[in-house]
Write a structure and sequence with these properties.
With about 160 residues, the chain is α+β, with helices and mostly antiparallel strands. It has helices at about 35-45, 55-65, 105-115, 120-125, 135-150, 150-155; strands at about 1-15, 15-25, 30-35, 70-80, 85-90, 95-100, 115-120, 130. A hairpin with a 4-residue loop joins strand 2 and strand 3 (about 30-35).
C-alpha cells in the first residue's frame, strides 16, 4: 500500500543532508540520508535559486517536457540493508514506465515537476517510528536528535522484514 508523503524538512549535517518525509494522513516521519550534490540541488530548488545554466535535475524535467512526458509519481519502494530504493513513474502517450532511481534524485525531480511522492507501507514498517513533532520545543529537540542520529539507528531488524498480510 502506498502512503502519500510530503517533504517535511531538509537538514544539512556536515557533508551530508537528511531529507525528512512526512506521512500526509498520519503522524510518521522517515529520514533519508543523501549526498551533498543532491542535497544542494534540493535546497536550491526550495530556495528558488535559479542559475544561468540548467542543473541536472532541471535539465531532466525540461527534457521530459520536450518529449511530452511527465513524472506521474515517485515512490520510495524498498529498504534493504539500510539503503532506500525508489522508482520514478514516467508517463508518455498513455504509457507509464517505472524507472529505478535513487531516492535523492527521485525526490529532487518530483519537487521540480510538482509530482506526488509516496512511500510504500513496507518501508514505514521497517523503520523505527519517528512521529511528527508538534510544538517548537519538540521541533528543536527533533533537530538536535538528527545531528547524532545514524542511519542504522532508525532501522528495525532488517534481516526479518514484516511478512505480507
Amino acid at each position: 500500500m502506498l502512503k502519500p508523503v510530503n517533504l517535511y524538512s531538509l537538514v544539512a549535517l556536515g557533508s551530508q543532508y537528511v531529507i525528512v518525509l512526512e506521512e500526509i494522513d498520519g503522524p510518521r516521519l522517515i529520514p533519508i540520508w543523501i549526498g551533498p550534490a543532491e542535497g544542494n540541488s534540493i535546497a536550491m530548488h526550495l530556495n528558488n535559486v535559479h542559475l544561468p545554466r540548467p542543473m541536472t535535475h532541471d535539465l531532466m524535467v525540461t527534457f521530459l517536457k520536450s518529449v511530452n512526458a511527465k513524472i506521474s509519481k515517485v515512490v520510495i519502494t524498498e529498504l534493504k540493508e539500510s539503503t532506500f530504493y525508489a522508482s520514478i513513474f514516467v508517463e508518455q502517450d498513455g504509457s507509464v514506465q517505472e524507472i529505478d532511481a535513487r531516492p535523492s534524485d527521485s525526490i529532487a525531480l518530483a519537487l521540480r515537476a510538482s509530482s506526488p511522492l509516496f512511500v510504500d507501507e513496507s518501508v514505514f514498517a521497517q523503520c523505527e517510528p519517528l512521529l511528527k513533532p508538534i510544538s517548537k520545543e519538540e521541533v528543536d529537540d527533533f533537530r538536535k536528535k538528527l545531528v547524532d542520529l545514524r542511519p542504522e539507528d532508525i532501522f528495525k531488524d532488517i534481516k526479518n522484514p514484516p511478512e505480507d498480510k
